[in-house]
Structure formats: C-alpha cells, structure tokens
Amino acid sequence: MTAPVRSDPTVVNVALGARSYDIVIGRGVLASLGVRIAALRPSAKAVIVTDDNVARYHLEPAAAALSEAGVAASRVIVPAGEASKSYRVFEQVCEAIIASRIERDDLVIALGGGVIGDLAGFAASVVRRGIDYVQVPTTLLADVDSSVGGKTAIDSAHGKNLVGAFHQPILVLADTALLDTLPEREFRAGYAELVKYGLLGDAAFFAWLEADWRDVFGGAAAREHAIAVACRAKAAIVQRDERETGDRALLNLGHTFGHALEAACGFSDRLLHGEAIAAGMALAFEFSARRQGLIAMADARRAIRHLADVGLPTRLRDIPGPPPSVDQLMDLVAQDKKVRRGMLTFILVRGIGATFIEKGVDPREVRTFLSEKLVER
Ligand SMILES: NC(=O)c1ccc[n+]([C@@H]2O[C@H](COP(=O)([O-])OP(=O)(O)OC[C@H]3O[C@@H](n4cnc5c(N)ncnc54)[C@H](O)[C@@H]3O)[C@@H](O)[C@H]2O)c1
Ligand SMILES: [Zn+2]
Where are the alpha helices (DSSP H) in the chain? Predict the structure, then answer.
C-alpha cells in the first residue's frame, strides 16, 4: 500500500527553458503519478522500466496509480545491478519499448535507482529519435543525484557511463516512502552524495546534517527536507551549466579519488559508489589540508568525522580486501581526469561549503599523499 500524502509535497523546479520540469518530493507522492502524467501529457501511454528488486515492492503501486488515472502502461523488468547498464540490456529495453507500440507522444517511466534512471533515460533519448520520460527514483542516490540533471548512459568496456546522452526528464517524482524498503547499506551510500551538497557549497546544510542525520535515516520530515535541499542545489548548478562545461564539475567532489578506489575494487560489492565517494571526499579534504594548505586541518577533520559517524568509509583501511598499490591508484586517477600539460584536475576545498575546480594539481603531490595514506593504513 502506498502511504497517504500527509502534507503538500515540496516542489523544486529545474528551470531550463523549454526543457524545464518539476521535482516533486514527499511521502506518498507515488499515488499521484498517473494524475500528474495525465496533466502533463493528456492521453499518453507509458512503459514502466524497472528492476526485479524494485518491481517486488513498488511496481504494483506505480501501475495502480497510472491505471486509476486512465494512463495505459506496459512493463519492462531488467535484472537489478550495474551489469544492466550494458549494450545487451539496453537493446532489450529499446526493443521492449518499441514492441509496446510506444509512439512519439508517449513516455517512459524510470522506476528505480540510478541504474534504471540511466538505462531507461538513455533508451528514451534514442527510441523514435527521442521520447519523453519521467524519473521515479527509489534510492537516496537517485533522489539527490542521478534522477536530476538529464545525464543518461550505459557502460562501455572502456569504462562506466561512456555511451549516453543529455536528455532531461519531464517530471521527477521522489516519493520518500519508497526508501523504506531500501537496504540500509544502500541508503548510507546515497547519504554520501547527499552530504556532498553541504560539503561542496552549503555549510549551514552540513551543520544541519551533522545534528539531524539520524532523522534523515529515520524517514521523518527531515528526509524530505534534506532531499529538497539537495535537489535545489543540483538544480541551481544544472541551470548554470547543463552540459558540464564549467561549474557542474563541482558535483564531482570526492569523485576522482572515489572512482579510483571504486575501480581498484573492480566496481564490486566491496565498495559501493557512494561509499567510494565518502572515502574520496575524505581524501579530498585531507589532501586540501595537508598537501595544499588550503583549509585548516580541524575543518577537514570535522567533515571526515561526520562521514565516519554515519558509518561511511573514510580511510583506506575501512575498505575490505587487499589495498591497491600507489601505482595502480595513480593510473586510475590519471584516467579519470584528463591530464593537461602534465597537471591533474581536482575539486579542492577551502572550507566546509567552499570548493573550487583546480586544474593545476601536480601529480607528484597526489602520489606523495596517497603513498602516505597507504602507509598509514
Ligand atoms: N545520471 C547521473 O547523473 C548519475 C549520477 C550519479 C550516479 N549515476 C549512476 O547511478 C547508478 C547507481 O545508482 P544507485 O546507487 O541508485 O544503484 P541501483 O540503481 O543499482 O540501486 C541499488 C540497489 O538497490 C536496489 N533498490 C533500488 N531501489 C530500491 C528500493 N526502494 N527498495 C529496495 N531495493 C531497491 C536495486 O535493485 C539495486 O540492487 C550508477 O550506475 C551511476 O553511474 C548517475
Ligand atoms: Zn557520485
């Protein structure tokens, strides 16, 4: 059963001219899916794309919300997990959408976490040269990050997210009750991307999370508030820089170190993306303090302590399994960010909530820093 809507949902608009859309956030808002779609696209049909985990809990309520509003919908269910962001599953999804007689005016509904949002969004961007889609995020990571901003992709043998398109959704419906069924480890990993908005540009939000993070985990109004703050921050950045030619890169705080750790763990269950980003942000803060002298060590420690308090990994020794070598990490760091005239690009910090893009980081500094961290391990 979908929980009843207890209060008016929070609406955040992403203002991108003709590609503008609302993010509707609240407990129980899934029940309004059909009514909202019928209002946006009268007489449109829909295809719901989801994964087998999400289908178990949330497909029937989503389908019911559509049929109650007279929106005809078919379903495509793919296996859960990053492996579904493949050419093979992408082909299956496109073929299934076409087989369900979807036309240019119809739409795709991505019901799931970031994997489903990226996969279904990319399919929507190319089937019949592009049809509309709606994001119904079911993970905290998708609520605060992947469902907003229009980046869609599948993975290549050369790396993650290398084949994709910018394609904005027409609506994001973030029902915070859907997170009640999410495994706690996945919720905690998504929390890393949530706290990122405080660390990268909003010291007051960070301080609020420090005090109230348990309520965000608990699912009270605090969860809705936190997701709304994050979506507003992401919307503001995407409005300034939709295609990531500048500022949008700030959202990559912790991601250069984080991606290197994720890749060193083989993108496995050893280290979820959000966990890697927590460790990556901790490293970015410490690197900014210790090697660059940009931020007081006490402030860096405060940021790292909060990540550790919620149970996220912040040190290399928190990552299970054999540690990577410094050579391996340096190779991965260099792959992640283009090297310009021998220098690396990093998001560095001057304080909690004060980050900037630094394109002139000396790789030797990074190597020395990582070698020290590996020894401390
Ligand atoms: N497009 C973007 O801007 C963007 C941004 C960040 C991340 N991403 C992508 O997002 C993906 C990661 O997303 P994710 O962390 O949401 O992973 P995910 O979609 O794989 O979901 C994590 C796990 O939780 C399960 N699950 C999802 N919702 C559930 C629910 N409500 N109850 C129970 N189980 C549920 C899923 O089946 C899966 O097993 C990566 O592929 C990443 O590249 C994209
Ligand atoms: Zn991320």
Answer: 33-40, 52-54, 60-68, 87-99, 114-126, 140-141, 184-201, 203-218, 221-240, 255-264, 273-290, 297-309, 326-336, 363-376
